Amino acid sequence: MQWKNKMNEYMLMVNDALETYIGEHQSVNEEVFEAMKYSLFAGGKRLRPVFSLAVCELLGKEPKQAIPYACALEMIHTYSLVHDDLPAMDNDEMRRGKPTNHIIYGEGIAILAGDGLLNKAYEIMIDHTLKLENPSFGLKAMKSIADASGTNGMIGGQTADLLNEGKKVDERTLAYIHHNKTGALIAAALKAGSYMAEVDDDEAEGWERIGYALGLAFQIQDDLLDIEGNTSEMGKPAGSDERNKKMTYPALYGIEASRERMDELTKEVQMFLKPYGEKSNFLVMLTSALMNRRS
Ligand code: GRG
């Protein structure tokens, strides 16, 4: 399948670049450096960086132009998972079939490894943006990523999630949590990728909007997989106590309505991609594969 070859090609580009970036990180504090690498190379799907590269290429530029921002997104995503697994948050011992960061390195180092990844993400983006002939697109990509990761994005969504644990949340709160916790970083991946193809703000906002739809569809599928008894994204046992403390889309709307909403969102994404013709084949196929995944 051609799209799978493309996926592998993008993943290799991302993994090579991550190795290089993290290799440049000369630290006398080996322990934190090892902990950062442990989670960064623990088998993530690399979806966010792949989205950035694919959008950049679809819009006619070399995907490698988006690499620094794509790798920064993966580092931010990884830091969020390391912190999310800590005893003060989800208290998880396993992720992606492996012991979580704090189980191996201890809580203190896991906190610092997360902080280290977050900081490294900005070091990479700033270094690269400073070298650009026209830094404004780099700055816009960076701002999209910073906004999406912050208190009006992922951290905001995580805060609402934490504060509502064990409660029956209403539709508005659930929408806020999903939009920010899952959607924002995926939306930023598409938006940053489009900025690296030097599009104007209106076009970049179109990519961002469709990224939010994709993020929600992805979240609903993740929650459905958990109910159906498959291993979910978190590498936690399906239906685990921790996940059961959280309100999910299927818990609020039911399984049927959730499937319908996921299909509707997937169609919305594919309709958006349609005018790009063949160039959008990869993203169309990847979106379908994500929504049909069984684990
Ligand atoms: C600690 C600030 C802070 C935020 C944590 C990402 C997150 C916010 C929590 C993780 C829990 C969760 C259910 C997130 C929803 C998004 C999601 C499905 C994340 C997993 O993404 P994948 O499947 O992960 O892309 P891999 O393992 O492939 O990298």
UniProtKB/TrEMBL annotation:
InterPro entries: Isoprenoid_synthase_dom_sf (IPR008949), Polyprenyl_synt (IPR000092), Polyprenyl_synt_CS (IPR033749), Prenyl_diphosphate_synthase (IPR053378)
A GO biological-process term: terpenoid biosynthetic process
Enzyme Commission number(s) of this protein: 2.5.1.10
EC primary class: transferase
Organism: Tindallia californiensis
Protein family (similarity comment): Belongs to the FPP/GGPP synthase family.
UniProt keyword terms in alphabetical order: Isoprene biosynthesis, Magnesium, Metal-binding, Transferase
Protein name as it appears in the record: Farnesyl diphosphate synthase
Gene Ontology MF term list: (2E,6E)-farnesyl diphosphate synthase activity; metal ion binding
Keyword Transferase part of the UniProt annotation: yes
Catalysis performed (reactions): isopentenyl diphosphate + (2E)-geranyl diphosphate = (2E,6E)-farnesyl diphosphate + diphosphate
The protein's required cofactors: Mg(2+)
GO terms under cellular component: cytoplasm
Family matches, as SUPFAM superfamilies: Terpenoid synthases
Taxonomic superkingdom: Bacteria
Keyword Magnesium applies: yes
Pfam family, one: polyprenyl_synt
